């Protein structure tokens, strides 16, 4: 029978308390018994001593015949009688001893006899009787004393025997209790302690106590549960560490990648550092955004490339056949969140995956978006064998990895865009013949373009460290005399342009150069960028600009015209089919549904809107014959506003058109006049973007058309007004100067109006500019009627 430890301990404590109380009471009892014995013994000794004195007094009185002294002896005898009475009344003396002792002598008779002898006459018989009584009393007192002592000894000895027996019983009980405790508690605890150490030293896997009930068994079970929890946590930590190591390797691979494909390949290979992962692949979103197209895949070291490709083919085929439920990557595109599928291989025949880690038919798949600021660049899919893979902590690490990869892809996109933009700028500068150099604040050349290198006959990399003044001299020979390069650069960077002479391998070129300082964050000049153009021939420069501008417009025209024709063909089909469907529904008497009518109306209206946008692209997309197509100038203006309307609105610019009705039709060459309107509108856009970086109520261009009469002259007036920074009178004069043809302003090229005025004047019109510095600029185009 197994007693609960709590009850056993409680019973033991109670029993020990009772034993201690009993022992204490026995000790007190023995102490009181001993005290009583001492009191009685002391009292009897006093009585015997007192009797000895009395007997001595009696003997002296009788021997000396001084019988008068016996009167004092009588008083002493009375006192002795009182003391004997006090002894006999003690509870310590047994009643049988009291009765026997009291009946063995009579002290009162001795007192009377003493008084009789003292009063006389003295008789021998009386003396003999007195002597006999005294001797008897002495014997009785001695006997009484021995009886009391023996009685006390017996009582003490019997009580001590009882105490010893009780102690023996208590000791036996304690031994029994210890044995019970040994069996119930100590032995199981020692066994538990030994097995626990063996478990900690990995000598045994789990605890195995013989008993299944009781507190110790519960303690062993709790310890086993703690051990199991520790093992589970250890396994989880090991798995988490493996994931963290793989993620760190992947982040390192991302940081070392300089292209998208290398990033994907490195990411797949690095994640396979985790032995729990057997297959990793990355897919790009398809055009419809419903699924992904794999672009990189890798398998564990136990898989060959062929086996990896085979697994990919099986998984993708199953996903396509079973739908979205078995396509975590497609789910990611829909939810924009990670997706974990616990049994991705369900229903796939094992034979298809033979020889691969997936052949057991059990795997978990996690698909994560590689995204940045809501844009999904790709989807990462990871397959693991263990059912406990992809815990919440694991997914947090992998989500962070997806964000890091998205950031890297975003940076690569930006770098690619910057590279393309730089290449485009380089090509434009190459085509324009401009020289570009970069110099530090002390005048040492840092870099240059190929045009400059060809002019000076030195390779670009060999020019680094050369002084810029070794190649450039001022048009005025004394302009730089006695000045340091740093001071010269600081001064000429504050000027719009400066004329310099470039010494080439064969001759010299007069260059119009602009120096632009590049500042550091603390406001210091890091370097200067210089762009120079041949200032020797304005016609050559204007022709170069016109060729570049015309070539870009031609390319734009070819592309937009081709695209416009394609859109127009498709749009015509949409409108025609929608109209046929609309007519059929009405003809069949099913046109009572207002929702259907409204939807069809929206389709037709949308198609007509597309047609209205595409029509100008087709009209102005390609060059016509030498004469060109003639259209009313108001039609050309309306088409131009339609073409640039969306582009301007995306930059927060409002095109506010206010045209009078029934304006006269002034025929113009459509393509030429459209270029004029393009230049005017884009100049206004640049002025507004320069003044207003974001949205603003004043960020708008007012386009007007009206019929004007001045005296006997009539004209059609078109106006373009922007609320930009405006121009001062000197700048207004320069806009019609051909040397003002191009000027780099922020994000675009501001066009001069020399060419525009020439086109307008060729149509018999005029072009004028009105500007208020800091307020607005208004361009007026008039055609006489």
TrEMBL record:
Q: Which InterPro entries match?
A: GAF, GAF-like_dom_sf, HATPase_C_sf, HATPase_dom, His_kinase_dom, PAS, PAS-like_dom_sf, Sig_transdc_His_kin-like_C
Can the keyword tRNA-binding be found in this entry's annotation?
no
Entry keywords, A to Z:
ATP-binding, Kinase, Membrane, Nucleotide-binding, Phosphoprotein, Transferase, Transmembrane, Transmembrane helix, Two-component regulatory system
Task: Please state the Enzyme Commission number of this protein.
Answer: 2.7.13.3
**What residues does the PAS domain cover?**
421-476
Q: Which residues form a coiled coil?
A: none
Q: Which SMART domains match?
A: HATPase_c (SM00387), PAS (SM00091)
- Does this entry carry the keyword Amino-acid biosynthesis? no
Pfam entry (one): GAF_2
- Looking at the record, the residues that make up the Histidine kinase domain are 562-785
GO BP terms, alphabetized: phosphorelay signal transduction system
The portions of this protein that span the membrane are 162-181
Q: What is the protein name given in its UniProt record?
A: histidine kinase
Q: Name one GO molecular function term.
A: protein histidine kinase activity
Which reaction does this enzyme catalyse, per its entry? ATP + protein L-histidine = ADP + protein N-phospho-L-histidine
